[in-house]
Amino acid sequence: MKYFIKKLITLIMTLFLVSVAAFLAFQIIPGDVVTSILGTEATPEREEQLREELGLNKPPVERYFNWVTDVLRGDLGESYRFSKSMNEMMPVAELIGDKLPVTLWLAAVSLVLIIVIAIPLGVLWARSSSHFLDAVLGVVTQVSMAVPSFFLGILVTYLFGILLKFFAPGSYVSYQEDFGGFLKYLLFPALSIAIPKIAMTARFLRNSMLTELQADYVRTAYSKGCTKRRVMYGHVLRNAMMPVVTFLGMIIAEIVAGSIVIEQVFGLPGIGRLLISSISTRDFPVVEILILYITFVVIFVYFLVDILYRVIDPRISEV
Amino acid sequence: MGRRDSPVSPAPVFCKLRKVRGMQECRMSGRMEDIMIRIEDLSVAFGDTEAVKHVNLELIDGEVLGVVGESGSGKSVTALTLMGLVADSAQVTSGRVLFDDVVLREAGKPCDKALYRQYQGARMSMVFQEPMTSLNPTQRVGKQVEEMLRLHTELRGEDRKQKVLEAFRSVGLREVEKVYSCYPHQLSGGMRQRVMIAMAVILHPRLIVADEPTTALDVTIQNQIIELLREINQKQNNAMLFITHDLNLARRLCNRIAVMKDGEVVELGETEEIFQNPREAYTKRLIEAVPSRVKRRRNAAAESGMGEPAGSGPDGKIPAGGEAAEKAGTEQEECAVQGWNTGREQGAGLERSAGQEKSAGLQECAVQGYRKPILRVRNLSVYYKDGDNSLFSRRKKQCVVFGAEFELYPGESLGLVGESGCGKTSLSKAILGMNREVEGEIVHTTLRPQMIFQDPYSSLNPTKTIGWQLMEPLRARAALDQAFAMTREEMETAAYDMLHKVGMEDKYFHRKPSQLSGGQRQRVSIGQALITHPGMIVADEPVSALDVTIQAQIMELMQKLQQEMHLSYLFISHDINVVYRMCDRIMVMKDGRIIESGETEEIFNHPREAYTKMLLGA
Amino acid sequence: MKKHGMGKWNKYLVAGLLMTGLALLLGIVGIFWTPYSTTAMSAAEKFDAPSLRHIFGTDNFGRDIFSRVMEGMGTTVVISSLVVLFSGSVGILLGALTGYFGGVLDEIVMRVTDAVNGFPSILLTLVIISVLGSGRQNVILSLGIVFVPSYIRIVRSEFIRLRDADYIRRARLMGVGRMRILFVHILPNIFSVFWVSVMIGFNNAILAESGMSYLGIGVQPPDASLGKMLSDAQGYLRTAPWYALAPGLSIVWVVLGFALFSEGIRRRNA
Amino acid sequence: MKRIRILLTALLTMAVLGGCGSDGTGESSGDNSSKEPVYGGSVVVGIQQDIDSLDPHKATAAGTKEILFNIFEGLVKPDENGNLINAVASDYTISEDGLVYTFTLRENVKFHNGNVVTCEDVKYSLERVSGLLDGTPLISTLKVIQAVDILDDKTVQVTVESANTELIYSFVAAIIPAGSGEDAEADPIGTGPFSYVSYTPQVGIVLKKNPDYWQTGLPYLDEVNFKIVNSPDSAVLELQGGTIDIYAYLTDSQAQELQETFNVEASASNVVQALFLNNAAAPLDDVRVRQAICYALDKDSINDFVGGGNGTIISSAMLPTLKDNYVDLNDTYGTTANVEKAKELLAEAGYGDGLELEIAIPSNYEFHMQTGEVVVEQLKEAGINATIKAVEWSTWLDEIYNGRQYQATISGITCDTTPGYLLNRFQTDSKKNFINFANAEYDALYLEAQATLDIQKKIDAYAQLQRILCDDAGSAFLQVPANMTAINKKLSGYKFYPVYVQDMSTVFWTE
Known about the structure:
The complex is a heterotetramer. The longest helix of chain A is centred in the middle third of the chain and has 36 residues, at about 90-125. Chain A has 13 helices and two strands. Chain A has helices spanning about 1-30, 35-40, 45-55, 60-70, 90-125, 130-145, 150-165, 180-215, 215-225, 230-255, 260-265, 270-280, 285-310, and strands at about 80-85, 90. Chain A folds into two domains: about 1-95, no CATH class; about 100-310, MetI-like fold, CATH 1.10.3720. Chain A is mainly alpha-helical. Chain C has helices at about 1-5, 10-30, 65-100, 105-115, 120-130, 135-165, 165-175, 180-215, 225-235, 240-270. The longest helix of chain C is centred in the last third of the chain and has 38 residues, at about 180-215. Chains A and D meet through α2, α3, α5, α7 and α12 of A and α3 and α9 of D.
């Protein structure tokens, strides 16, 4: 419990730091919000009027505190750029709520791919005594890890999209329209995300298992007359999975926070792309919230992993 | 030394030694089936290096056979090969292992794991050295013991659990239900080892292999476990292969002892026979090396006064005691010139180095107020701070040493004895100023007392050469005080001198610690501590990580240097015998308090506290 | 140590050295000399497929892709090296101080690194570049800032581990000065760990740099950069696949080579 | 309080390439023109950026206007030749003094909500845009409207405060139902060939057929989906994947890539691309340096490299498609590089040893970035060491366009069908004169041209203005890039307009 509170305080402090940093960044970032909105033709009076409407004429500290109070009250503010209707700007919450499922589903599909492929692969690899398999997997995973995600995205597009025509590049369908089609399309970007991570996870699991296999308790298990299989699945796997859980947590955090590059390559309207476009249009309320969201997700996932770790590893749970 | 038994005729040796149990008759009449375990001419190699060479061992029901040897002697590999647990990379290059005439393992054939599984657990089981790591850290211990039943019996859920609880009770565990659902880390070391033993004996196997089962435990717990093993052996009448580096332990438990060295069995015989009449030089040395109360005075006198050779270990030359005594005088003068000691202290040192009964002399001095203590500790309490340096959590202070009071006199060795966690290390750190959370008074007259640590592997900076490390204290001293400025040549000369003094050759000057053995590293550590002539040394378990023969050498070295350089030692150890050999006076510490202190002989002969008695009994 | 050197070659080290060596050689030569000018345009040679004349073919301006890959490799390697140099030095300094002394500085630095760590690196560089503007120095600076926390962490944890090592305690007892303990006694001992993380960091820097260029926030044209080439080439996947493959595979080559090299080093040290 | 947003007032191209202007010929696309139109079906059109507003009076982005063209109509509307045709109005007259416009409404034009357009609706719409309604003019050129009077139920009279021969072009402003302005953003209702169905930010907008459209037989399609495509690269992939049918902003090489499988059409855009030179920043304040740069550039090869040779080379600020007003000044500096002359001028100006030049380019415009690469290479020949500084669009607006803190920049300025539109900005005091062009003769001449009602005089004055801008090397004007549009081969009837318009009403499937 005390640990929990401590973690929570750390989380809040980090969020605070990040929000201040993001806020500050937008004070010094070149490119005026008002110019960006009004373009080149507006009169100075109009600019001043908008500045006032947006509250930009107030001192930064006051603006920051107003904004923080609003956010704490659950009001995430409104986009400068996107309108919901003529009288209303798009609330940031709604805007992000719209994009978030794309990123989350992408993360989910990637994660399923990673877990479903990497874990059996890692176990197989650790169990295998075949030098050939070992060498092949070694090379394949090394190469997979060396491919940058955008290049992988391009290769996947080229191979599965253009050559094999498994999917039509750019034929993203909104999840609201056709969920099946949406998932089918997500498979390929998810694959591009997953491949290097599968390689990393499988390697990691294998090394973890090999390390665990050196542990004394494995010898004890054998001394009881356990079969190799029983030792592997009854004793080693669970213990070897623990560091892998942390590792997977890092991966989850990374994907859930937005796979900007992959979203760019495959034209997915997720939060990564929203962030990029919002930065370039100086849509400050959106950017601030997105940055906070991402920070929150990352820290929160780490936190969850930490908790999970405590649940599955009895050694830590009492600390 | 280094006798190699002919692989075909090991029998004569056995026959001679086995009369007590009537083994000879058995073998003569050809009733081979009574011999349960037979290891015949076993050699095990890892790649090109043979770890076990032509070993022959036999065991019958109810017998406890000790296998004694120092690290690397091949005793564990032998046991693991017997159990079918040796790594796949190990090859049996000769001989075979039989269990009731069934060949379990044979030279040139891979390990038949399916065959072994019929024996492992059910008919032979093993107790390992580290109960913490030998238990699966993420499984409840009850389940782990129960796995034995799952694998080898038809018992069902609740029956299995009852059987496990019963086994727990039989190994002296209390609150067995609670223990059943504990994870290994929630148990104490002793309890864990009891769980391991329960696991080993639950199916009443005919053979139990115990590989250093008490080494990782405190002395008092050690005793209990030994008693438990003895008890089980008597109750269940199973044979036991007891592997240890500790001759004393073997002596207490075993019917017969096999002494191993460099992969070979160099001597095998009835326990008492071996102790009384060791035939091999190595066995003799092993017995000699064990610090024993019986031998202490005689040895000390012999080494320092009578010039009896102390035996030469692999580390090479150690100047014999006589020479040391001769040199002592000049050394003392040097010290005096450098202003480290007073004239009177010098006198005391010389007096002692003449080989007289020193503690008496010192006691006398102290009583007379003849000498000033080099260290005085008054009402010292030491606190331990929670390591967490977060801003949020208030630091909790925990008292680990309560009101310690004592003095250390020049040239004296003061022993500090206690089990792990009693506060002896905290006390020593406080004295050296490494822990500033203290209350009370510490006064020492030396400039910079130095320390020698237990682990020779972490005591030296792995990236620096030995020469550099020996010179570093001189550089540091010069940086602090211009008066001690030395040229590089002078430093090098001093470093070489020190290297010689700790019994090492010039060539080591340019080597790094990774190229040195444990004993050699400890020598360098000692040399590094002494190069600035600190006068007082705190030695925290300086020999407990070393093999017994090396232990003896290091202790000799420390005693020699003490005389030569007129040093005071605060000698910390859990090993009562080591302390006995090294120290003039002893303090016994328990739960942060010094509960008893006095002259060594006095404590040993007339312990006042029950705890001290228990320690001595171990 | 030297006598061990030759005996400890392993296949990872050899393969890694060969691959990295070739890449570095091309990259470094590429800084000073390339077979063709990397900017000279030729309308006649637009999108020539790989041939003896242009072994990687030509791009949309008729520029020799091989020459541009060489230059891009040089750019990437130089930037990545400077990033690692920058973040490594800052990491050592801060990690050493915070790890050894702890206290308030440690707390502040750790909170800041937490915040930086809890943030995808590409996003952070994006924000920093938005603030600083694009350009070579800013790419180095922003990536440097992004990578500093990982080095601080590694160095810090090593210093925490070693500050209580027996030989460091002894050095304190000898009266060795703090800075000497930090940088003479401890620092050499963390190099084996640090070296591996530098290698990994170098690879990450390469990936991040090319990722930034891919998103158009890295090195600006006409300077060749592998990521930028890749993003330019993406549109010509069907007509000129070699244009995408050449820079893409070059990145893979460098990263793989370095990964193998560091794996080799790791195994040699193990 | 109502927040009014006016996004990027359409003077600067947001697109890589702007709309279209098909040399006034207005050919319909492809070889399929002869084929029989099939009614029904739906088409997906790739667009480059999100909609800035669904309120036709507030939408300013060219990319939005090209879509809203399908939903809304004004009293008049442009046709594919750049001429105005009558739309909601069936006829109009302008008084002699140019101050009174009288519009007659077309019979039975219906809004998408089924109501017939009345004079009230027209009055409301015009008052709304001119600011008569609430004091906030929404379209700046219509600020001059003084009164809108309903003469009878089919006639509306508009009185303006000053005569302007080019004002009629502004009456393309959308007619919306009276009082609907506040709802236009959520439920836009117009009279165009298609009606609004839905809009999803960052995804796109869906329109459906207006069955009551006044032009009988139009439109053919049941549904049009304008889908936002984030980059030209992915547009190509989407075209190939068949997820979009029409895309109008291809680069030359992409167009070539699609040549086989699509009908790819090149047409002149309404964008003037130039290497804009800050006349106030050293060393560009020296006319010789600016001229040297103009000489050093090889516009032909720029056109070849980045435009596939489809662009139209220009040397001043006038669209060649505006034939009456355009003068060809390409002989002034030539269309290929004249390095000798450039070096000579530089030496004269004291930069014989070379010169450093920083060219800022908005990094999101691939076309300008690529042009920049070629320009840098060409300037090198003349001893000008140019470097590219990529800037974000917001930064570009802030620092370069408004702040005028730059040496040179490559960008494009868009033009509408009003001929004097581009020339206006180069008056010394113009707020839009971001190149700091200062020429008193030019200023005087421009005012003169505006004042005259004599068409020929106006044309002459415009020609002279173009010449001054060119001779003075106000900037190095490069080209009017071609607009490369890929159209599904099974589609026909796509028309190219000289302004940003994607007219879907005439598009049909051939099978």
